[in-house]
């Protein structure tokens, strides 16, 4: 399992980051990066908005 460089925000093979040279901590990281959570939340909000529009359209 790959470790994760917090500085570069990328997965790293081994114990030292190739890019910044920082030692990386063994994967005590959340499985889903925050930006993906943001994308998922934004998608859910968008879908709720579209469903709301559809219901609104059907009720008229
Ligand atoms: Zn790095």
Structure report:
With 60 residues, the chain is mainly alpha-helical. The chain has one domain. Helices cover 42% and strands 10% of the residues. It has 1 helix and 2 strands, in the order E-E-H. The protein has a two-stranded antiparallel ribbon. A hairpin with a 4-residue loop joins strand 1 and strand 2. The longest helix has 25 residues. The termini are far apart. The model has no long low-confidence stretch (mean pLDDT 86). Zinc ion binds next to loops.
N/C terminus separation: 54 Å
Run of helices and strands: EEH
Quaternary status of these chains? Answer: single chain
Number of domains: 1
**Total helix count?**
1
The distinct ligands, each listed once, are:
zinc ion
State the low-pLDDT regions, or none. none
Map the helices and strands.
Layout: E1 3-5, E2 10-12, H1 34-58
Antiparallel strand pairs: 1-2
Bound molecules: zinc ion (ZN).
Brief write-up:
It contains 1 helix and 2 strands, in the order E-E-H. It has one helix at residues 34-58; strands at 3-5, 10-12.
Based on the model shown, name its key terms.
60 residues; mainly alpha; two-stranded antiparallel ribbon; 2 strands; 42% helix; binds zinc ion
